[in-house]
Amino acid sequence: MGRARITANLVGSLALAAFLSACGGGTPTSAEFEKLDAETIYKLGEYELANSRKGADAVTYFSEVERLYPYSEWAKRALIMQAFAYHKDRDYENSRASAQRYIDTYPAEEDAAYAKYLLALSYYDQIDEVGRDQGLTFQALQALRAVIEEYPDSDYARSAILKFDLAFDHLAAKEMEIGRYYLKRNHYTAAINRFRVVVEDYQTTSHTPEALHRLVESYLSLGLTDEAQTAGAILGHNFRSTVWYEDSFRLLTGKGLQPEVKGDGWLAQIYRQMIRGEWM
Predict the structure, then answer these.
(1) Which of 19, 86, 173, 180 is the most buried (most CB within 10 A)?
(2) How many CB atoms lie within 10 A of CB 110?
(3) Model pTM?
């Protein structure tokens, strides 16, 4: 950035600070806003966004740009900045609403990709503990997929892919949590149903090795040795170096069994698909 541009930015920032001081340090009134052009109001919003802890302080300015200059280029910029400012405040509902309004109004604009990404983040950033309702996780996955599919060459798509994988892993973690709960209480059939979901639907996540081991545990507890041996075989084929395989191998050999494909159950079918390269 050249010296002239740095000087111009500094002068602009000082001018904006002086204007805010003239307003008594508070937000300008409607009458004061009406005396300003769109660019000035927009830059006041940027100044607030950079210097205030609350994104809502900046939203006021960006909203005024839209109100006073609804068809201007600055109004377009102000709308996407509203979505960002709300997100900064963790006001995800309003961030999502602003981002969706931008997408609906300016679907062909370059910032539409960013608006879609912000919309996805408004769901994703609410995913925290495994124990919460997973509806937000599903919504995050759908929104992230939209970014990946519609803007595959963008930086937003690359970031969305990483977040998609983490959200997907989050769903698998939820199934594992419930499965462990049932297993500890000797509800083996209910536990198996949860671990099966991980193996069949979330096999690319980090939870698959443990899910297979828990299947070995559950099936052995029910006396279903064919299924237990087959789960051990899949675990050995894909995750031989993990502690989960070591534990499963110990459990099986302790009962005189080996990890090998037995019978024709769902695990045996998965094993055969895997050998043909159609699984994992």
Answers:
(1) 86
(2) 8
(3) 0.74
